[in-house]
Amino acid sequence: MSRSVLVTGGNRGIGLAIARAFADAGDKVAITYRSGEPPAGFLAVKCDITDAEQVEQAYKEIEENHGPVEVLVANAGITKDQLLMRMSEEDFTSVIDTNLTGTFRVVKRANRGMLRAKKGRVVLISSVVGLYGSPGQANYAASKAALVGFARSLARELGSRNITFNVVAPGFVDTDMTKVLTDEQRAGIVQQVPLGRYAQPEEIAAAVRFLASDDASYITGAVIPVDGGLGMGH
Ligand SMILES: NC(=O)c1ccc[n+]([C@@H]2O[C@H](COP(=O)([O-])OP(=O)(O)OC[C@H]3O[C@@H](n4cnc5c(N)ncnc54)[C@H](OP(=O)(O)O)[C@@H]3O)[C@@H](O)[C@H]2O)c1
Q: Which residues are in the Ketoreductase domain (predicted)?
């Protein structure tokens, strides 16, 4: 297989593991990055998904080099944790603008080529927290829960066009995002996880690659938990 794959936020963390999994399988992989040196081995396009113009430019660059995107993994995301009483409007709207509206921007643009090709695979990276809830993460949980309704609506809207939309809901994964947690917070989380540990990014990547593979040709509108049992499938 040598498909044109785009992984947003593929420059580090879970996104990088996903990008590597597709590249190892022989796909042409583009990743987005915002600053610094992107990792080698991919077509790295500079793109902030909160900016529609940058999204458009990134797609043009990918289409010129790899052809229209056939597999989109909307992975880029942020947290701005705060208790509701102290959560500013900016804390809330910036997380929604990145995690939800940013996903809308990249999915909408990918759809153009997928409609023409009459096929496509879209995988959205949500979180166990979206359906489980988490104190101090109302903004993040709302944005991640919204991805489920978004994906399921599109699964219904575009199923007849042979485009699948699925959601992967990781539990706690060892990345920069969770490095900010204290040892005490980490221990508390691990205690609740039946498998008793954090996930490695590669374990999330495996589920994503499966959803984009031929083996998943009849799966759409699904939410696949990869959380060590934390959410018990919700
Ligand atoms: N780690 C976990 O425990 C966990 C659990 C469940 C779900 N998730 C989800 O998995 C995804 C990846 O998380 P991670 O742990 O790998 O996080 P991370 O290490 O913090 O990486 C976040 C990635 O998103 C990119 N990004 C953030 N805002 C962006 C924007 N406006 N435009 C373009 N790219 C942007 C970052 O790019 P820059 O390098 O340019 O900042 C980076 O590549 C996120 O959606 C996260 O919510 C993570």
A: 3-176
